[in-house]
Amino acid sequence: MNSDGKPVRVLIIAGSDSGGGAGIQADIKTVTMLGGHAMTSITAITAQNSLGVDAVHMVPTDMVIDQIASVVSDIGVDAVKIGMIGSADTAHAVADSLAELSCPIVFDPVMVATSGAVLADADTISAFERLMRLATITTPNLPELEALGGKNALLARHIPVLIKGGHSDDDLIVDELHLAEEQCVSWSDERIATRSTHGTGCTLATAIATGLGQGMDLVPAIERARLFVRLALHDAPGLGQGHGPMGHQSVREDAMVAGPSLNQVTVGCRDYSASVDFYRTLGLQQIVDSPSNGYARFEMPNGVTFSVHQSDACSTSTVVYFESKRLDAWVSELLSQGYMFDQMPQDESWGWREARLLDPAGNMVCLYSAGENRRYPAWRI
To answer: In this structure, are 307 and 244 located in the same domain?
Structure first.
């Protein structure tokens, strides 16, 4: 929401993907799933699918600019995402039209599709300089970084850049944020084994733009966007014979909320098998099965998880879980208000970071941060 309590208005300037995996189609899905209102200025129409780009038709520059002017003059804009730009003339015209806006701008310098198709010529790439100067953040992948002159040359321009590491051959993906003030923040995650990676760059940039439009600072906006992309990769439907689309439509709202959310309850049981059979019969999807530990976790259709844990003291084994991305800050705030913790925040072997305390009635409450590991632990069934 923006300051008026209305959905944040995100203008997407990019090409259309007839296969629905990237471009305008992926951008609209991303903005919508993150609670915003998507508007578009289409720069090119492509005939493509998971195997590649078969044809490209560039939209005339005047029409691209007319689309921008139409939505800006009536609906207004809280953030802009720029993707495939089409031509050098369009790049310069877009830079002219955006120069008067004061909202965040995210520039994803699209040059090559996941399939390898070239989507920007040398003149267009040269014209990207103006868009990078306008942008709040520019988000090149590794091949795009090289086309822009390499890391050192790009950083010498003293513009904020998020270098995406997904095109490396490493199992560990590292993304680096370089700010104009020569500050660097990096994130690393294990590569998700899937061929459904079409549109990852478009989705990340659009998610960042949506977050910035909603008033988030840059680093939290990037962190939420990265989580959104990883969950969409986990939820990919497996469509197409090549690099298929991600599962934007399956990313649950509970993973995206800014504040604490009730995401799990663990109840005790004496007979593990009987309890597992009972909750399966109720229609819950089992996602963790650990009989040796007496532990099973289930998932609800809305993404909330529920678990059972074998215990001789069932009446005292119930635990309520509240999740927050800002766990440590949350615990610090509670400590300052006089609350005592049985366990301070610590990283657990199952991939969560947890803190525990008792409520006034003596019920155990777990405050935690899990990200994708709550629904997608390494041992998910």
So the answer is: no
Confidence of residue 315 (pLDDT cuts 50, 70, 90): low
Task: Supply the pLDDT for residue 127.
Answer: 83
Sign of CA dihedral 77, 10, 254, 364: negative
Q: How confident is the model at residue 62 (pLDDT cuts 50, 70, 90)?
A: very high
Same domain, 84 and 149: yes
Confidence band, pLDDT 50/70/90 cuts, at residue 163: very high
| C-alpha–C-alpha distance, residues 40 and 13, integer Å | 6
Tell me the backbone φ, ψ of residue 297, rounded to 5 degrees.
Answer: -120, 145
Catalytic residue selected from 29, 36, 83, 164: 164
Decide if 199 is catalytic.
Answer: yes
Active site residue 200: yes
Q: What is the dihedral of CA 56, 62, 63, 68, to 10 degrees?
A: 120
Please list the alpha-helical segments (H only) found in the chain.
23-33, 61-74, 88-98, 122-134, 142-147, 151-155, 200-213, 218-234, 272-281, 327-336
Full domain range(s) for residue 348: 272-374
Give catalytic status of residue 201 as yes or no: yes
CATH of the domain at 277: 3.10.180.10
Whether 295 and 329 share a structural domain: yes
Residues facing residue 48 across a β-bridge: 53
> Catalytic: which of 19, 199, 268, 371?
199
Are 190 and 322 contained in the same domain? no
Structure tokens at 145: 């970084």
pTM: 0.81
Active site residue 139: no
Domain boundary residue, one of 220, 250, 280: 250
